[in-house]
Design brief:
mainly beta, six-stranded mixed sheet
Length: 390
């Protein structure tokens, strides 16, 4: 594979700040072709991996299997074009972008389109013919063959777009300027090829030779589209814990607390737990798998006025352990008394004393009583509701 990339950056000066905005990502290793599925049972698919810190603008980018920008489109050679939607305007580093082609087998490797990367660092786009956003040239399908190539370039079209990455496994790419490299991958129908960064070249995926990070000849059912490729230490760790969310943000003593987190791993996840503690008390709750890389659990109701600390701990089948940063919250009372008054302030023996209180509560108030003592004799009387909180 040969990477032909250039770089363009717009700089905006505003109120003393210098803001650099990535207009197009066109330098080496900004985005790489990370996995290719040549489907027999599944549709063809390509996974891209964003490498550039700060993110890239991928609106209008094109994926093609043509051997040249001027090649004639056909039913077996075509393009997929990414939409101009805002969610592609700044795709962050280490996001995986999965593009499903309207070709290959009858079953989708991933059936649901995903345009929100914040939870799992993954975007999944389907073609318009399958209810998605990817555009193709009429009947001209992106359609992989056993000897083919995959070319990623910026738009707005094939002839004016800049090539970002090329992956060739025996296909003709002579029409792409400078793209003379070939690799030794095997990708017959029903197989996948995926890239890892366990080679001396890091994220440079421009050599398919042994030891250079590419694996091929793997059955399509073992694809890792939308997940971390085996052996690929994305972000430098075998386990990544991201996007820990607490709901509610400020719980009270009548509310359980729901914790969710995105956990990615090179290996199978063995356990994900939320550990929480306050004073001398410590406990943990197992997190359940929800979907994709999302795990969730519920911390039970906690005592009022306690400051609670918590973190997420994940363990994989390789006994790798990752612990998130510690966060905290304070449990507020579920019932709060305010503005307790008496009238008259100093009653005499001929006067009754009226006690008034304002009460706010998470749950409906079912009973309010005034407790008092006279000469060490205790008694109580029910308080009557006179307004919403009084």
């Amino acid at each position: 594979m040969r990477l032909i990339k250039r770089f363009c950056m717009a700089t905006v000066f505003c109120m003393g700040w210098v803001i650099q905005s990535p207009v197009f990502s066109q330098s080496e290793n900004d985005v790489i072709i990370n996995e290719i599925l040549h489907g027999a049972t599944y549709k063809d698919a390509v996974e891209l991996l964003v490498i550039k810190p700060g993110g890239v603008d991928m609106r209008g980018w094109i994926l093609t299997d043509l051997f040249s920008p001027t090649a004639t489109l056909s039913t077996s050679e075509g393009t997929l074009t990414l939409p101009q939607n805002p969610f592609l305007s700044n795709v962050s580093q280490f996001t995986r972008v999965v593009l499903i082609a309207d070709a290959g087998g009858a079953t989708l490797p991933i059936a649901v389109e995903d345009t929100i990367a914040s939870g799992d660092s993954t975007l999944v786009l389907l073609p318009v013919t399958l209810g998605g956003l990817l555009l193709h040239n009429g009947t001209n399908r992106f359609n992989l063959a056993s000897n083919d190539n995959v070319v990623l370039l910026t738009g707005p079209n094939l002839t004016t777009g800049s090539v970002i990455d090329i992956m060739s496994y025996g296909g003709d790419i002579s029409g792409w300027t400078g793209a003379a490299w070939r690799n030794n991958l095997s990708l017959p129908s029903g197989n996948i090829a995926y890239f890892t960064n366990d080679s001396i070249d890091g994220y440079n995926n421009n050599n398919g030779a042994s030891g250079k990070g590419w694996n091929s000849g793997i059955a399509e059912a073992n694809h890792t589209l939308g997940r971390i490729n085996p052996g690929q230490l994305t972000g430098g760790k075998p386990i990544r814990i991201r996007n820990i969310i607490r709901n509610p943000i400020s719980p009270n003593s009548a509310q359980p607390v729901i914790i969710s987190a995105s956990v990615g791993s090179l290996n199978a996840i063995s356990s994900v737990r939320t550990i929480y503690y306050y004073d001398l008390f410590t406990d943990s709750v197992e997190m359940s798998f929800v979907s994709d890389s999302t795990y969730r659990n519920t911390i039970p109701v906690l005592p009022k006025n306690k400051k609670v600390f918590y973190f997420v701990k994940a363990v994989d089948s390789g006994n790798n352990v990752e612990i998130s940063a510690i966060d905290s919250f304070t449990v507020t009372p579920s019932i709060v008394f305010a503005q307790i008054t008496r009238s008259p302030l100093t009653p005499d023996s001929n006067q009754a004393a009226t006690i008034t209180a304002k009460i706010s509560s998470f749950n409906p108030v079912t009973s309010v009583k005034l407790l008092y003592a006279v000469n060490r004799t205790a008694d109580s009387i029910s308080m009557t509701k006179v307004s919403d909180t009084t």
